[in-house]
Design brief:
This protein is mainly beta. The protein contains one helix and 16 strands. The strands form three sheets. Strands 2-3-5-8-9-12-13-15 form an eight-stranded antiparallel beta barrel. A three-stranded antiparallel sheet has the order 4-1-16, with no helix packed on it. The termini are far apart.
Length: 202
């Protein structure tokens, strides 16, 4: 096994070990009202070193493998199949590398106290974008992460976890080593305005 692969698996293992040690593990599962999801960020901010920011509307669409998922840290639960930036403003133009789709969605953890949960954190592995001439890609060791915020059994908004740096994957000394996403998305059922509902099931 290559060294970088071992490091990636080790990082993922340490993350899951931390989540489990914090008392997150449970045999109960999470059920969504729909398998498909659409999240519109209007916009996200791409944060680079030195205070250079780019703002781009972003739409993500995808689906879970099942409407019901187990709360197992690191489990592959779905894919993002569509990812599009609209016209950007600020430091640079950016685009999603759609040829790298689908991107993997993994369950990480939930927030709140059972039986009431207030958030679900997901990881995105393989998220790939070009910002100016720089290429960035999230990995198992450095995943992009966002949170489903939940109130009254509905997903109300989806902020990015800003402290989740996305590393560059092509050497370029003129490119910052990482970027970060900041922004708040509105989640809906694809093709509808209905909100996504969430509940715990046995």
């Amino acid at each position: 096994m290559r060294i970088h692969t071992r490091l990636a698996l080790g990082a993922a293992g340490m993350l899951c070990a931390f989540v489990l040690s914090a008392g997150i593990a449970s045999a109960r599962r999470i059920e969504f009202s729909t398998q498909g999801f659409r999240i519109v960020f209007a916009p996200i901010t791409i944060i680079e070193a030195g205070g250079l920011n780019t703002m781009c509307p972003l739409t993500l669409e995808g689906s879970f493998h099942s409407r019901t998922i187990s709360k197992v840290c690191g489990q592959l639960v779905g894919y993002i199949t569509t990812a599009n930036f609209a016209m950007c403003s600020g430091a640079a133009q950016a685009r999603t590398l759609t040829e790298t789709l689908p991107w993997h969605v993994r369950y990480e953890s939930f927030e709140g106290t059972l039986p009431s949960i207030t958030g679900i954190t997901f990881q995105i592995i393989g998220l790939s974008i070009q910002s100016a001439v720089c290429l960035y890609k999230s990995t198992a060791a450095a995943p992009a992460r966002y949170i489903y915020h939940i109130a009254g059994g509905e997903v109300t908004n989806v902020p990015w976890v800003e402290m989740s740096p996305i590393p560059r994957f092509e050497e370029n000394v003129n490119c910052p080593p990482v970027i970060r996403f900041q922004g708040n998305g509105i989640p809906t059922v694809p093709g509808e305005t209905a909100k996504i509902r969430v509940r715990l099931v046995q």
